[in-house]
Write a structure and sequence with these properties.
Layout lengths: L1 H13 L3 E3 L1 H9 L5 E4 L5 H14 L2 E4 L3 H7 L7 E4 L2 H13 L3 E2 L1
Parallel strand pairs: 2-3
Antiparallel strand pairs: 1-4, 2-4, 3-5
Helix pairs in contact: 1-4, 1-5, 2-3
Length: about 110
């Protein structure tokens, strides 16, 4: 499950359908482009609450998954606390793995 999620995150990055970092993810959500928001489990409580509330208000799926280092590595970047998936197909595939795994999905 972990390697499939990492692979899907990497694919979405290469396809140009991934935004990473708090500011880019917030912009993606507010512009209505985001289909799935993933926040690392070790992000600050403030960050997790901010994105949880933002996603609930806009009816976007929110999930907590992995660590900042894992999310950053999957996206080919430095540590990242949040990711936004902007493609419905990638988002649906990730939701399947998140629901079947240990991630907290709302």
């Amino acid at each position: 499950m972990i390697s499939k999620m990492i692979g899907l995150i990497g694919l979405s990055q290469r396809a140009g359908k991934l935004r990473s970092g708090e500011f880019a993810v917030e912009k993606s959500v507010k512009e209505g482009k985001s289909k799935l928001v993933i926040v690392s489990g070790d992000a600050s409580e403030n960050t997790r609450k901010k994105f949880r509330d933002m996603c609930a208000f806009r009816h976007i799926t929110y999930a907590e998954y992995g660590t900042m280092a894992e999310l950053g590595h999957a996206a080919g970047r430095s540590e990242r606390s949040s990711l936004s998936i902007e493609d419905e197909g990638f988002a649906e595939q990730m939701k399947k793995y998140l629901n079947g795994g240990s991630a907290n999905v709302e």
